[in-house]
Specification:
The protein has five helices and two strands, in the order H-H-H-E-E-H-H. It is α+β, with helices and mostly antiparallel strands and 115 residues long. A two-stranded antiparallel ribbon has the order 1-2. Helix 2 crosses helix 3.
């Protein structure tokens, strides 16, 4: 989450929830912990005070390169021995599964709303 905020410059809990595939409540609780640790900060959006703008702090920006390096190292180890073309296909497959799951959830919600 720190890396995403660092890359985006600023974001909201709703956008983080969508990108990370989590509900907004879980994201908010995680942001609370990262804010308490001094990695993220929040402020009200001047255009819509209901929204909180989330940004990395100086501390978050300092740890971001270390986090990026560690994530890449784990990713490299995880995919060791697997061809890049297969990894690419796997990512496309996961994206399609995610899109299908979102579509099914939306259809279920529509059917539930019409009952």
């Amino acid at each position: 989450m720190v890396l995403h905020c660092e890359e985006e410059g600023e974001t909201t809990a709703g956008k983080l929830a969508k990108v990370m595939g989590r509900d907004k409540g879980k994201i908010t609780r995680f942001v609370d912990r990262l804010e308490a640790g001094g990695f993220l900060s929040r402020r009200s959006d001047p255009r819509d005070h209901r929204l909180q703008i989330i940004k990395t702090t100086n501390r978050g920006r300092r740890v971001a390169p270390h986090l990026r390096f560690r994530f890449e190292e784990v990713r490299r180890q995880f995919f060791q021995g697997i061809l890049n073309v297969d990894i690419d296909r796997f990512e496309v497959l996961l994206a399609q599964l995610h899109a299908n799951a979102e579509r099914l959830c939306a259809e279920k919600a529509r059917k539930g709303a019409s009952s």
